[in-house]
């Protein structure tokens, strides 16, 4: 049953993963945007093979979801990053982050090492505060 207090947000060019795994890229609720984990997937759902390209694609996919809700990286308050091999990948990934996060203050961040991400190297999940002009009135 659909709740009138929350609505799904889909960016243009819906990725195959959303339909295949039956999830919304983000949900708007109570002045907040809860973004599902974004990976470095192409539109067909396949992963970018190169680590740097996959990281850039994950952030581009995240940016598309944020923009579809009227948000930007500046509105992100909490980030969870899942990595399959943090000791080998973390430094390379951290060199890419500033081109998306910009300057301090940065959002809160939790990094989690995992054993499997369905063929992906990392997944980025965020919570953003919706700008007042993008918030829908509560019913």
UniProtKB/TrEMBL annotation:
GO terms for molecular function: deaminase activity. It comes from the Bacteria. CDD domains: YjgH_like. GO terms for cellular component: cytosol. This is Endoribonuclease L-PSP.
């Amino acid at each position: 049953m659909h709740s009138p207090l929350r609505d799904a947000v889909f960016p243009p060019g819906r990725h195959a993963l959303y339909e295949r795994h039956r999830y919304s890229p983000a949900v708007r609720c109570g002045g907040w945007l809860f973004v599902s984990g974004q990976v470095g997937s192409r539109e067909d759902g396949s992963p970018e093979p190169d680590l740097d390209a996959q990281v850039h694609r994950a952030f581009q996919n995240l940016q598309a979801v944020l923009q579809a809700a009227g948000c930007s990286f500046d509105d992100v308050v909490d980030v969870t990053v899942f990595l399959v091999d943090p000791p080998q990948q973390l430094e390379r990934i951290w060199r890419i982050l500033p081109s998306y996060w910009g300057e301090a203050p940065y959002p809160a961040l939790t990094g989690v090492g995992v054993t499997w991400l369905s063929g992906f190297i990392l997944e980025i999940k965020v919570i953003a505060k919706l700008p007042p002009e993008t918030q829908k009135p509560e019913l």
